[in-house]
Amino acid sequence: MKDKGDKNKKWFDVFDEFEKKFDDLLDEMSKYLDSIDVEKKEREIEGPYIYGFSFIIGPDGKPEIGKFGHIRKAYTSKGDPNIRVPLTDIIERNNEIIVLVELPGVNEENIHILIKSGKIHVLASSDKRRYKKVIPLPKTVDTSSLKTEYRNGILEIKLNKV
Description:
Elements: H1 4-35, E1 51-57, E2 63-69, E3 83-84, E4 88-92, E5 96-102, E6 111-116, E7 119-125, E8 130-136, E9 141-151, E10 154-161
Parallel strand pairs: 3-8
Antiparallel strand pairs: 1-2, 4-5, 5-10, 6-7, 7-8, 9-10
């Protein structure tokens, strides 16, 4: 039988894990920003510069930190610095999975969605912006139940769980 001390320790462990991941991300971002040569005339990426992270507590109670943006080649498609990795979120409900993808500045007809091997592939583009993201799904889904809605730069993808 667990005592109350174990329960409290587990609760605080979530914050300790978050703090470590958060500090690591801030260090990484700081090193990268310090390495940018502001006076450099030719840039790989035209501004604005976008880089950030999201923090959510998953259904299992563990913190999840996701990165988004386009200033790091490692976070873009095949090293193309002009393709942005959009901010995404996955919400699990009783019988469905909802995926939210931020795609500002893109028209709905220029958004392409493919579901393959348990992942959603989202490609979107406009004259000024290009986005690409592969999103692993937490559960098996019924691809024929796919419903999408795009409003105010937010793509909402709904799928039924199998």
